[in-house]
Design brief:
single chain, mainly alpha
């Protein structure tokens, strides 16, 4: 499996290598860390919004009326 792992890592590096470099650069400064945190917060808000919609449809599909406070 060693050759397969190496091939997978090469593909992953080709796909994500630039993003890894940028991430490491951002971590080096407080301003970069703030930028990363802002992006993460925006992504979390978008994910929560999407999850609420999906869960509402699931609850309706299975007949759950009391949804509680949700996501």
């Amino acid at each position: 499996y060693g050759h397969m792992k190496k091939a997978i890592m090469e593909k992953m590096d080709a796909l994500f290598g630039d993003a890894r470099v940028k991430y490491r650069e951002l971590l080096e400064t407080p301003a970069g860390q703030e930028e990363l945190e802002a992006v993460l917060q925006q992504g979390a808000a978008k994910a929560r919004s999407t999850a609420r919609g999906v869960l509402a449809r699931v609850y309706d599909a299975v007949g759950i009326k009391n949804r509680g406070s949700g996501v």
